[in-house]
Amino acid sequence: MSAAPDHTPTFAALSLSDRLEKAAPFLLVPVLVVLGFFAIGTTSSWLTLTVSGLAMGMMIFIMASGLTLVFGLMDVINFGHGAFISVGAYVGISVLLALSGWTGAPSLVLNILAVLLAVFAAIAVTGALGWGFERVIVRPVYGAHLKQILVTVGGLIVIEQLIQMVWGPEEIFLTRPEMLKGAVTFAGAAVEKYRLLAVVIGLILFVAMRMVLLRTKIGLIVRAGVANGEMVEALGYRLRIVFIGVFIAGSALAGLGGVMWGLYQEVITAGMGEEMMILVFIVVIIGGLGSVEGAFIGALLVGLLQNYLAFLEPKLALISNIALMAAILMWRPQGMLPVVKAK
Amino acid sequence: MLVKLLSGDKPNSVVLTIILLIILVCLALAPFLFPGVRSLETAARICIFIVLVASYDLLLGYTGIVSFAHTMFFGLGAYGVALASDHLGRGFGPLLLGTTLGALAAGVLAVLIGLFSLRVRAIFFAMITLAVASAVAVLVSQFSTITGGEDGLNYSIPRALTPAFRLGEIAGVKINGKILNYYLIFFCSGALFLLLLRIVNSPFGRVLEAIRENEFRAEAIGYKVVWYRTAATCLSAAVAALAGSLFAIWLRYVGPDTTLSFEIMLDILLMVVIGGMGTMYGAVIGATIFVLAQNYLQNLMGVAEEATANLPLLPHFLDPDRWLMWLGVLFILSVYFFPTGIVGRLRAGRQG
């Protein structure tokens, strides 16, 4: 009998720098918040800015999550995503304007009912639109990035024009429901109620999305599909159907984000989807294509940085997003938490 | 001689040759064939957009990468001329200086963006260029002390290029500086177009096509894909900037809406795809059709709208403001059904 080989396996813990490297993306947001606190100085304005940054980040995340999943799952890049944001906003805001009796009344129940109705209408319409978009525009061009980009841009143009046809080219102004107006004062800082609500909704959605992705079977299939689609199909799952589901859900989320953004800005234009789409792309890129967590962190970073800089150095805020993207890509060329291997 | 001028890339189709010749003759004799301010304006636009679209085709059709920053480079060239003329006064020197600086700036910026995004994957490029271009557009409209903001800049160009400069009369047409200016645009555009034709038919252009067809194989043969893609981006950006400079010389005005807006980017995309990707002649056809449609289709749609005013719903679709929608539909259909565009169809028809 020969002796056992002469090495002893060791289980060394990761060194501090390795662990830091792994955790770094998750630490960025807290670090930015702390840095912001020192740069701004006064607690009350810091609190106001942080809440509005978080609110903005949450709304961008809601719009971006669908796009990043669609990309991760089917390698489809949808430049028409912005159109869903606009359509969602227009449908939702139209419902709110039609229910002006309810939104104007100082009753919490009626206000919430009106907002919920608006949100459901927006989700239903953008979800249906997403389904049609997938069938008509995206399906014939699987696997060809160049054509996907071109065709989805074409879809964006057509939908934007249709919006102008239905609602007219002028921007639509609106006022928030009575109970969402105004601010609450907390520790000397005035925090708009609506922003708090946006943060709460965003958090709920993020947690819910993580629960679905991590705890349910459908989430398992989606995650497995992102990691290795061919294998999942070989195991007998029809990834196409899952993909259509994700596409519809992503479109509906974009619509929801559109309504929330419309209520936040209190004005909507047909071009808003295009503008938001640029932010969404930045978020998706710095988060790492295909990663929901990455998009969440990216969205919060974008929102916070923009709000802090707008306070500290307004001119700089104009390029804060691009600078952030450049910095992150220099640090991690694939984005912070890439899921899809570079193809 | 002629074949050499075209770098051996002949139109390869009788119909296409005839159409191209008609376009060439019409553009060359535009001041005499179609007198009038508006038609001269249209002809100059066509010349400039042919170059702009051809330079975009170098990226999209030949290299296979989608950029949304082409208007940014176009705008850099235009603002280069505008700023130089604004600060240094009227004269050919500032025009030349502005043109050179604009093209240089565009090239450098293109290399930077390319190194950032093409390193990882080509699809990043589309998104990053979109983001950068929008940031630049915002910056230009915000820093109004330098760029004139939303209002843009008005400046004077050498007197020899303005309508006030009169030369006499040929064939019943008064020759003035505007017509000289037109011929400046025409010949510069022609030269740039031939240069692009030269580039895509050079060994360099062949490598670009190889990368478009099969990136891995090109890399395996030993071509540095990133390097070639970045070089193509840089060249295309520089030519776009030159087109922008021509545009600025022609208009004597620059503003964010005329040079930097996303709408122009969409126009360029439409022109490339409708004309035909991967062939320089596609740019000629696409730009001509599009600019003509832009200027005259709206009138036609207005007529159609009135004619159908009594029908339900239809007038809304025929509203002149909706012409972009129809082009969008045409765009989607052409990507699906004839991705090689009009030129590809004409060439295929000859073979089939």
From TrEMBL, chain A:
<feature type="transmembrane region" description="Helical">
    <location>
        <begin position="316"/>
        <end position="333"/>
    </location>
</feature>
<dbReference type="GO" id="GO:0006865">
    <property type="term" value="P:amino acid transport"/>
</dbReference>
<feature type="transmembrane region" description="Helical">
    <location>
        <begin position="276"/>
        <end position="304"/>
    </location>
</feature>
<keyword id="KW-0472">Membrane</keyword>
<dbReference type="Pfam" id="PF02653">
    <property type="entry name" value="BPD_transp_2"/>
</dbReference>
<keyword id="KW-0813">Transport</keyword>
<dbReference type="GO" id="GO:0005886">
    <property type="term" value="C:plasma membrane"/>
</dbReference>
<dbReference type="InterPro" id="IPR001851">
    <property type="entry name" value="ABC_transp_permease"/>
</dbReference>
<feature type="transmembrane region" description="Helical">
    <location>
        <begin position="149"/>
        <end position="167"/>
    </location>
</feature>
<feature type="transmembrane region" description="Helical">
    <location>
        <begin position="46"/>
        <end position="71"/>
    </location>
</feature>
<protein>
    <submittedName>
        <fullName>ABC transporter permease</fullName>
    </submittedName>
</protein>
<feature type="transmembrane region" description="Helical">
    <location>
        <begin position="23"/>
        <end position="40"/>
    </location>
</feature>
<keyword id="KW-0029">Amino-acid transport</keyword>
<dbReference type="GO" id="GO:0022857">
    <property type="term" value="F:transmembrane transporter activity"/>
</dbReference>
<comment type="similarity">
    <text>Belongs to the binding-protein-dependent transport system permease family. LivHM subfamily.</text>
</comment>
<dbReference type="InterPro" id="IPR052157">
    <property type="entry name" value="BCAA_transport_permease"/>
</dbReference>
<feature type="transmembrane region" description="Helical">
    <location>
        <begin position="241"/>
        <end position="264"/>
    </location>
</feature>
<feature type="transmembrane region" description="Helical">
    <location>
        <begin position="108"/>
        <end position="129"/>
    </location>
</feature>
<keyword id="KW-1003">Cell membrane</keyword>
<keyword id="KW-1133">Transmembrane helix</keyword>
<keyword id="KW-0812">Transmembrane</keyword>
<feature type="transmembrane region" description="Helical">
    <location>
        <begin position="83"/>
        <end position="102"/>
    </location>
</feature>
Automatic annotation (TrEMBL), chain B:
<keyword id="KW-0472">Membrane</keyword>
<keyword id="KW-1133">Transmembrane helix</keyword>
<feature type="transmembrane region" description="Helical">
    <location>
        <begin position="266"/>
        <end position="293"/>
    </location>
</feature>
<feature type="transmembrane region" description="Helical">
    <location>
        <begin position="226"/>
        <end position="254"/>
    </location>
</feature>
<keyword id="KW-1003">Cell membrane</keyword>
<dbReference type="GO" id="GO:0015658">
    <property type="term" value="F:branched-chain amino acid transmembrane transporter activity"/>
</dbReference>
<feature type="transmembrane region" description="Helical">
    <location>
        <begin position="323"/>
        <end position="344"/>
    </location>
</feature>
<keyword id="KW-0812">Transmembrane</keyword>
<protein>
    <submittedName>
        <fullName>ABC transporter permease</fullName>
    </submittedName>
</protein>
<feature type="transmembrane region" description="Helical">
    <location>
        <begin position="122"/>
        <end position="140"/>
    </location>
</feature>
<dbReference type="InterPro" id="IPR043428">
    <property type="entry name" value="LivM-like"/>
</dbReference>
<dbReference type="Pfam" id="PF02653">
    <property type="entry name" value="BPD_transp_2"/>
</dbReference>
<feature type="transmembrane region" description="Helical">
    <location>
        <begin position="180"/>
        <end position="200"/>
    </location>
</feature>
<dbReference type="GO" id="GO:0005886">
    <property type="term" value="C:plasma membrane"/>
</dbReference>
<feature type="transmembrane region" description="Helical">
    <location>
        <begin position="65"/>
        <end position="83"/>
    </location>
</feature>
<feature type="transmembrane region" description="Helical">
    <location>
        <begin position="14"/>
        <end position="35"/>
    </location>
</feature>
<feature type="transmembrane region" description="Helical">
    <location>
        <begin position="95"/>
        <end position="116"/>
    </location>
</feature>
<dbReference type="InterPro" id="IPR001851">
    <property type="entry name" value="ABC_transp_permease"/>
</dbReference>
